[in-house]
Design goal:
There is one protein chain. The chain is α/β, with parallel strands linked by helices. It folds into four domains: 178 residues, no CATH class; 142 residues, P-loop containing nucleotide triphosphate hydrolases (Rossmann fold), CATH 3.40.50; 52 residues, no CATH class; 95 residues. It contains 19 helices and 20 strands. The strands form five sheets. A nine-stranded antiparallel beta sheet has the order 7-6-8-5-4-3-2-1-9. Strands 11-12-17-10-18 form a five-stranded parallel beta sheet, with helices on one face. α9 links the parallel β11 and β12. α2 packs parallel to α3, α15 runs antiparallel to α16 and α17 packs antiparallel against α18.
């Protein structure tokens, strides 16, 4: 009995070839059985098939391959599909010796089943690049014989049977080329779908709503919402927090001092602070350190910030009458080199005026020259909304909070717009459904098929709606206006366009 060899192909693909029963295409099953039988008959080799269509990354695209391995341990070939669902075999890759990458490649998009088999047999046998001519029945012929035969043929217009016979004998010419691509098998295990398959737009926004509700219900204290601008992140937060004690901050916080003050003033466990589109804060080291405390998932976190207006927390508590001035407190203050004479009954008028000013500044934290403690325990809940993506965001902040990245393809954005169309408004103003449908039609029938606009957002769709609302403007005109407007908004001019502008 012939001993089955261990071969490297099985090593490469073993983990990726999951359930053989995954293949449901009966026609494909028939093809595989034909190939298996023919190879066995011609070469005397047993063929092992890994029937699941394995995702393979090659030259920036993904193909789906079905692997055939001969038991000699040296030869193998793979049928490649453009789609995971199967369809026509687009190409075949061949291994003529063990390697991670195949050595030979054949484009087979125009071949029938018998021609496929004929090409496979020929490549395995010859093991070289070149041209293969195969007839409709899968017979491989020499190119010289084909030319001579074609020259001697006479086709009678009156003989339909002969005409059909000649058509049946149609030949295909294919090229066997050397494979220069580096490829990588995308190994999938039982958890791959959970971790690797992207969420659709419904799933993504459901996750976002779930995370917001965790903040609302006090089961989580910090949330980062990252990703594409203008696709409804802020709207979803606002919608989910209706009726809650929430406050939105946009462009008013410009640095660490303003951020620290904001967190201190609104430090309330029953309050939700929403920081929307304040990305500049993440680029400042001091602001980032403050945010580490604010975004920590612990119920209570300590936030500190040293500045000329911030003082020791104990001194601050004394000034706002939160801490009684006991001998022990006086002793602690003196140890901090704080002049406690101002608290004494016999204090000079000058010291009393100083104390009065300090108390006033401490009791009014919202004033421009307010005195704040240089550290405090933060208890409020925080949501940060940013147009940055995970790879552009500090990992130290990501690790301290729940994170949702909202990133949609063009198709997903269009689907999202279609779903929210009945409730879509412009600056809080309701819009006639007729105009919104016209804008959606332009988006689906013009913008998407053109592939000129890489990605659109709700603001861009709003712009289209405004063009659709033009009272006396024909569709041909506002279509043109909308197209140019979107191009200007979402694309950068090419080098050729820049040259034309310079010439003008």
């Amino acid at each position: 009995m012939k001993q089955r060899k261990f071969n490297i192909f099985e090593y490469i693909y073993a983990e990726a070839a999951s359930q053989p029963g995954e293949l449901s295409d009966s026609n494909a099953e028939k093809l595989y059985n034909i190939i298996k039988s023919r190879i066995n008959r011609k070469f005397g080799s047993k063929v092992y098939i890994q029937k699941s269509r394995i995702p393979i990354s090659r030259d920036g695209e993904t193909i789906y391959g079905v692997m055939f391995m001969l038991d000699d341990g040296d030869h193998a070939f793979r049928l490649n599909y453009k789609q995971k669902s199967g369809g026509a075999v687009s190409s075949i890759d061949f291994w003529i010796h063990p390697s991670n990458n195949p050595q030979l490649h054949v484009d087979t998009r125009e071949l029938n089943v018998l021609q496929l088999v004929g090409v496979i047999e020929e490549v395995i046998e010859k093991k070289k690049t070149g041209t293969i001519i195969v007839d409709n029945d899968g017979k491989v012929e020499e190119e010289e014989d084909v030319i001579n035969e074609d020259n001697n043929k006479r086709v009678s217009d009156e003989d339909e049977d002969n005409e059909r016979s000649l058509k049946k004998k149609r030949r295909k010419k294919v090229r066997v080329e050397r494979n220069n691509s580096d490829e990588q098998v995308k190994i999938r295990d039982e958890f791959s779908a959970l971790f690797d398959d992207p969420l659709n737009d419904d799933e993504l926004f459901s996750l976002l709503e779930f995370e917001i509700r965790k903040i609302k219900n006090k089961t989580n204290r910090a949330l980062l919402i990252l990703g594409d601008p203008g696709i409804g992140k802020s709207y979803t937060v606002t919608k989910e927090l209706v009726g809650e004690n929430a406050q939105v901050f946009k462009g008013s916080i410009t640095g660490p001092a303003a951020l620290y003050k904001t967190l201190f003033i609104h430090n309330d466990p029953d309050k939700i602070l929403i920081f929307d589109d304040l990305d500049a804060l993440f680029d400042n080291d001091q602001s980032a350190n403050i945010l580490k405390g604010a975004l920590d998932s612990a119920k209570v976190t300590e936030i500190d910030y040293l500045s000329k207006n911030n003082i020791n927390p104990l001194f601050y508590d004394v000034l706002i009458d939160k801490e009684p001035l006991t001998p022990e407190v006086i002793q602690k203050l003196e140890a901090m080199k704080i002049n406690t004479e101002m608290f004494m009954p016999e204090a000079s008028p000058q010291m009393k005026r100083l104390l009065s000013k300090l108390k006033a500044r401490a009791m009014n934290p919202e004033s421009p020259n307010a005195i704040l403690p240089n550290k405090f325990n933060f208890r409020a809940r925080v949501i940060f909304i940013s147009n940055r993506y995970l790879q552009d965001f500090p990992s130290s902040l990501i690790s301290r909070s729940s994170v949702v990245e909202v990133s949609l393809t063009m198709e997903q954005i269009v689907n999202r717009i279609e779903k929210i169309l009945p409730n879509f408004e412009l600056d809080g103003v309701k819009i006639d459904m007729e105009y919104k449908k016209a804008a959606l039609k332009f988006l689906k029938e013009v913008v998407v098929p053109s592939k000129r606009i890489p990605k659109i957002d709700l603001r861009g769709f709003g712009d289209i709606v405004k063009f659709a609302m033009s009272p006396d403007t024909p569709k041909e005109i506002w279509y043109r206006w909308a197209a140019v407007s979107l191009k200007n908004k979402y694309t950068s001019p090419s080098k050729e366009e820049m040259k034309k502008r310079i010439k003008r």
